[in-house]
Structure formats: structure tokens, C-alpha cells
Amino acid sequence: MRNLLKPVILILIALFPALVSAALQNGKVEVGLVKGIATLIDPKAAKKALASGLVFQEGYTVETNLESTTELILSNGSTLIVSPNTLLEIRTFKQVASNLIIEGSYQKLDKEPSPSVTEIEVKRGKVLGEVRKLNPMSSYTIKTPVGVARIRGTIYEVGYEEDKKGMATMSVGCVRGSVEATVFASSSGPVSVAPGQQVTVVAPAPPKPAAEEKPAAAPAAAAGTAAPAAGTAAPAAGTAAAPAAAEPAPPAPPVAPVSITTSVMDSKTLSSIALTLASSTSLPPSIASEVKVLAAAAPPPVEAKPAAAAAPAADGTAAPAADGSAAPAAAPTAETATAAPTSTTPMAPTPTSTGGGGGSAIDSLVQKITDTVQQTVEKAVQTNPSGTGG
Questions:
Q1: Phi/psi at 259 (nearest 5 deg)?
Q2: CATH tag, 2-206+257-300+339-381
Q3: Per-residue H/E/C for the chain
Q4: Are 101 and 95 in contact (CB under 8 A)?
Q5: Residue 279, Cβ neighbours under 10 Å: how many?
Q6: Inter-CA distances, 49 with 63, 79, 286, 331, Å
Q7: 110 exposure class (CB count in 10 Å sphere: 0-12, 13-18, 19+)
Q8: CA distance 95 to 138
Q9: pLDDT per position in the chain (390 positions), as tens?
Q10: Which of 51, 13, 19 is nearest to 32 (CA)?
């Protein structure tokens, strides 16, 4: 019997690299409902219109205009609704192969069929997601330029916008389940977002790549003139003037602090989410109905009160204090407490426990899943020393 098993074992060992590489593969993203005009951009920047039934994978970018929404259904059973005026990239989506993954039936899964690594970056706009119960080894993150949200089996909402003053706003809302938000330029660590709550982060937007600037040409000396020798008199009128001493560089502008605010999701916000789930997805109606019930029990939206402005002086500037100094800025309230930045420039994303701080964290997680699959395959090809053959 052992002699019969040897050829089979040798074949399995020869096929071992192929078995491992096939185990962890690119996940599939299927386009569900599409309202209006949306665009799919491939890794080579080629564009085409997004249409229901289209299937793509990691490395692709989706963009919606001001009047369009689209539904993306991932092969791990999760659903992503892309709101109007949104730009996002499927940066990483790897999944262990499974016979439970059937194209066209991803939303029928009640839980994730196999471990996966998902990293989606929202560069502009907002996404609403529904994630089925994930495998304990899986990672599902929604990244923005200033922070990342780690998702664990939930209904969530993540938005990102930048203003003209160089500030960025990231919002992370948890409708059901568990969400954890991490801000890159803050030392506060991951912030847990409980069901029915949302976290709003205001931080300096990452700097845009500077356009290449051509150095200014040095002024040419007047024709026929030469630089004066040391100790000689100044050049006569009409000759080139000596270059002026370099002016000191202006001081760098102060970096705005990072503000992290936690609040309750009000009835208006939850009602809007329920409407989107009901009208813009292929999800079962029961999911939208559940959120609608939560909206009915949520508090009403709070009307924002305009802040009292300081009385301007005669020249239009802020009124000075009694001692002649500038009037101090208003102290932050408990609801708008800010976290001081840890450096004078926005911190670069660093790998964190959320798996979304950088490529190295994602690569490490992919390698961990691959090693686990490899150990399983190795056990499958080992001989049984106590076999029945002899």
C-alpha cells in the first residue's frame, strides 16, 4: 500500500506551489444596481462606463458623478454603495479560494466563505456598506487620506472631503456591529465607534504633489563688464549690480490641530441610510427595514447654533484686549476638543492594528493567510506513519 501511495505523494508535492498560489487569489467585485452614469478606471487609467453585471478585481477605481450611485458586491458577501460625487479605489482584495464562492450569488452568503483581505480607499465622497460575518483571520478596512476605519460585520458609513483651506473631514458612522477608526496624524490610537454613533475627524489634508518649478534664470551681467576684484571700487553706473544677500525663508505656517468628535447618529441620518439601502441596493428589504426601526428610535437632529462673533474694531479687525494684546481665541468646548498634532507636519500613514496604515501591514496579513493555507496543504500531503498498508 505504501508503494502505491508514493507516486500520489510525489505528484502532490510537485503540485504544492500551484496549490498554495491558487489558494489565495484575487477576489471578485460584481457591479449591482447602477443609477445614472458611473465610470470604471482600470490600473492603466483606461475608462469605461459602469454597467450592472460587470466583474472586476483589485487595482480598479470607481467614480460617480453628482447624480449617480452604484452598488458593488464583493465575493466575500459584502456590499458597498457608492454615493454621488465619489472616487474610490479597490486597493487590495485577496481571498482564499472556496467552492462556496459562486459568481452572481455573492449576496446570498450569510457569512464570509473564506479568509480575505480587503482595503478600499475613499479619495473623495461617501460609501455605505453592509458586511456579513467575517472570518476571524480576515481584514476589512476603508481608508481615507487622513485615517482608516476597520470594519467587523456591520452596516457602516464612511465619508471624506477636503475644503479650499487645506483641511479634510473624515466621518465614520456605525449603524450596526463594530467599527474602529484610526487617525494618522493623531497619537490617540484606535477609536471605537459603537452602534448608533459616528466619529467626525477634522485634520490637515495631506499635501498635494508640488508641480515642477523651473529655477529662475540668473540675471546676466551687462555686456563688456567684469566682476570687480577684491578691494576695488564699486562698479560704475551701468554695470551689473552685485547680487543681494539671500533673504531668510518665511516661517512655516502653524499646523492646524486635529479634532476628533463623537456624536449620536440622529433620526435624519439613519432614515437617509435606510432609504439608500431600500432604493439603491439588491440587499433583502429586511435590512433597510431594520435600519428604519433604528431611525424611529433615534434622537432628532440638533439644530446648529451660529457662533457669536467678536465685535470688530473700527478698522474691521478683532477688538484688542484691555492690555492692548490681540483678543484670545474662544476656548474649545467639550464637544469640539482637539488633539494636538504630534509633529509640525501631518504624520505619514503608519501600519497599525487596523491593517490600513500602509502597504506593509496589508502584505503582512496576506502572508499570514498564505502561511496558514500552506501548513494545511503540507499536512494533507504528509504520509500517515500508522497507515493500514504494509
A1: -110, 125
A2: 2.60.120.1440
A3: CHHHHHHHHHHHHHCHHHHHHHHEEECCEEEEEEECCEEEECCCCCEEECCCCCEECCCCEEEECCCCEEEEEECCCCEEEECCCCEEEEEEEEEECCCCCCCCCHHHCCECCCCEEEEEEEEEEEEEEECCECCCCCEEEEEECCEEEEEEEEEEEEEEEECCCCEEEEEEEEEEEEEEEEECCCCCCCEEECCCEEEEEEEECCCCCCCCCCCCCCCCCCCCCCCCCCCCCCCCCCCCCCCCCCCCCCCCCCCCCEEEEEEECCHHHHHHHHHHHHHCCCCCHHHHHHHHHHHHHCCCCCCCCCCCCCCECCCCCECCCCCCCCCCCCCCCHHHCEECCCCCCCCCCCCCCCCCCCHHHHHHHHHHHHHHHHHHHHHHHCCCCCCCCC
A4: yes
A5: 11
A6: 10, 20, 31, 50
A7: exposed
A8: 9
A9: 556 555 545 444 444 444 444 577 999 999 999 999 999 999 999 999 999 999 999 999 999 999 999 999 999 999 999 999 999 999 999 999 998 888 888 998 888 999 999 999 999 999 999 998 899 999 999 999 999 999 987 899 999 999 999 999 999 999 999 999 999 988 878 999 999 999 999 999 998 776 544 555 555 544 555 555 555 555 555 555 555 566 776 666 566 789 999 999 999 999 999 999 999 999 999 999 999 999 999 999 987 676 665 555 555 555 554 455 444 444 444 344 444 333 333 333 333 333 444 556 666 666 666 666 555 544 544 444 444 443
A10: 51
> 382 is written with which cell numbers?
504528509
Grid cell locating 182? 484610526
Give me the residue spans of the domains in the chain: 2-206+257-300+339-381
Cell numbers at 266, concatenated: 440622529
